[in-house]
Design goal:
By secondary structure, this protein is of the alpha+beta class. The protein has one domain. Helix 1 crosses helix 3, helix 2 crosses helix 5 and helix 3 packs across helix 5. The longest helix has 19 residues. It is elongated, with a radius of gyration of 19 Å.
Length: 224
């Protein structure tokens, strides 16, 4: 399956053929097999403080108080996500937010590669629980971007250095949301929803498109 050539274009057309990298097979999902997102970033106290005080002086103060916060997410991660979210609102506001979206990849190999690098390895009764699951984007928004244009910047106790770090992050974030590519791109798919449509495979074949499927499930009424 080939990805669209124009990265950074937001779509609401259902797309099957993407894969979701899950840290284990018993991932949370609804009765309709929609993957349940986990907003771990926005629930972090450090992120809330960063997002409300995204300026060099405030970040310098936070760097001095890092011991007061949980080790993850790190200050650098929180700052990067806050900057990228701010830039998204001005460059590609209709795209899913990194703070609340689900991620998918163009194929199973890419999904597993991502999972091995960014998720902790988990083991169950049958061995390693890492896996890639076929998904569709259901009736939500989705956009393909280059993950390698999402970068962190060192944040410390020097106000001038922090000001430079924020400036560089803003430039890179603008490239990311504009659909540009790095020298070694890794295409990630940011999605509002992920539907594990293979849950409803039958001897007769695949389930219909998500909207039609949900209308049948709800007696003709479906709200996206």
């Amino acid at each position: 399956m080939s990805l669209p050539t124009d990265l950074g274009r937001v779509s609401t057309n259902e797309r099957r053929g993407f894969y979701w990298a899950c840290p284990r097979f018993d991932f949370p999902r609804t009765v309709d097999a929609l993957v349940t997102p986990f907003d771990w970033m926005t629930s972090a106290g450090l992120y809330s403080e960063v997002a409300s005080s995204l300026d060099p002086k405030s970040l310098t103060s936070m760097a001095r108080r890092q011991h007061e916060f949980e080790p993850a997410p790190s200050l650098e991660k929180c700052v990067a996500e806050a900057v990228y979210e701010t830039v998204r609102l001005s460059v590609l506001s209709n795209a899913p937010s990194r703070l609340h979206c689900l991620w998918a990849a163009k194929d199973a190999a890419a999904a597993i590669d991502f999972a091995l690098k960014h998720y902790p390895i988990t083991f169950g009764e049958n061995g390693m629980g890492q896996g890639a699951v076929p998904v569709s984007t259901a009736d939500g928004r989705w956009v393909v971007l280059d993950m390698n244009l999402f970068r962190l910047a060192a944040i410390g106790e020097d106000v001038t250095a922090n000001e430079e770090a924020l400036s560089k992050l803003e430039v890179t974030a603008r490239s990311y949301w504009s659909g540009e590519e790095s020298e070694a791109p890794f295409h990630e798919v940011l999605c509002d929803k992920l539907w594990v449509w293979t849950t409803f495979l039958t001897p007769a074949g695949s389930p219909p498109p998500f909207a039609e499927f949900m209308k049948k499930r709800t007696g003709g009424v479906h709200e996206s």
